[in-house]
C-alpha cells in the first residue's frame, strides 16, 4: 500500500488504487487526519463504546453527535450516514470524494506554497480516478444483472476499444 504524506494539517492521502478495506467513512476520516478513535471521542464528547457501536452498526448515530463529528472533521453530516443514521461504509467512490474534498479545501486555504502545484496535480488525478471509478461501477452494476446479452455487449465493446487503442 502506498501513502502520500501531505504535510498541511497533518493529513494523509492514500493512493486511490489501494484496496478499500471494511472501513466506514468516519474511520477513514480519522485515518487521513491521523487522529486516534480515542482522540476523536475525547474531542467530541463520546465514549469509545459509542464509537464502536456506530462503527459496528449496532446503533445509529444520534443527530447531535453526528453534527459534532461533522464539525470536528469539517464535512457535511450527510457524508457520514445513510438514511437510517447508520455510518456509511467507505467505497472506492467515497474514498476518492473525501480526498477531493480535502485537497480542494487545502488549495482554497493555501496562499503561496511550493507544494501547491503538487496538490493541484493530485486533485486532477483524483478527478480522473473519480470518473474512472464511476465507469467501473456502472459496468459492474450492469454485469450484476447476470444477463448474457449485457455481458456479450460489454465484452464486444471492450474488445473493440482494446483493438482500437492498439492500432493508435
Shape: flat
Look at the helices and sheets and give the structural class: mainly alpha
Q: Stretches where pLDDT falls below 50 for ≥5 residues?
A: 1-20
User: SSE order in H/E notation?
Assistant: EEHHHHHHH
Mean pLDDT metric: 85
Let me know the largest β-sheet: 2 strands, antiparallel
Number of strands: 2
| SS strand fraction | under 5%
In whole angstroms, the N-to-C terminal distance is 33 Å
Give the strand order of the largest sheet, numbering strands 1, 2, ... along the chain: 1-2
**Helix share, percent:** 55-70%
Computed over alpha carbons, the radius of gyration is 19 Å
Query: Oligomerization state of this entry?
Result: single chain
Total number of helices: 7
Short synopsis of the structure:
The protein has 168 residues and is mainly alpha-helical. It has helices at 25-33, 37-44, 48-55, 63-73, 92-109, 116-143, 148-167; strands at residues 3-6, 11-14. 61% of the residues lie in helices and 5% in strands.
Amino acid at each position: 500500500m502506498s501513502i502520500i504524506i501531505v504535510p498541511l494539517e497533518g493529513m494523509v492521502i492514500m493512493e486511490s488504487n489501494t484496496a478499500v478495506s471494511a472501513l466506514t467513512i468516519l474511520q477513514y476520516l480519522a485515518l487521513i487526519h491521523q487522529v486516534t478513535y480515542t482522540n476523536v471521542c475525547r474531542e467530541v464528547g463520546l465514549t469509545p463504546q459509542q464509537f464502536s457501536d456506530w462503527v459496528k452498526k449496532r446503533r445509529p448515530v444520534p443527530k447531535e453527535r453526528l453534527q459534532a463529528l461533522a464539525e470536528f472533521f469539517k464535512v457535511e453530516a450527510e457524508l457520514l450516514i445513510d438514511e437510517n443514521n447508520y455510518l456509511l461504509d467507505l467505497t472506492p467512490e467515497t474514498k476518492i470524494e473525501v480526498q477531493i474534498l480535502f485537497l480542494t479545501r487545502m488549495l482554497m486555504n493555501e496562499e503561496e506554497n511550493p507544494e501547491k502545484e503538487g496538490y493541484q496535480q493530485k486533485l486532477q488525478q483524483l478527478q480522473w480516478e473519480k470518473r474512472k471509478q464511476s465507469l467501473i461501477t456502472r459496468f459492474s452494476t450492469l454485469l450484476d444483472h447476470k444477463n448474457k446479452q449485457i455481458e456479450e455487449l460489454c465484452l464486444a465493446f471492450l474488445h473493440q476499444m482494446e483493438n482500437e487503442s492498439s492500432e493508435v
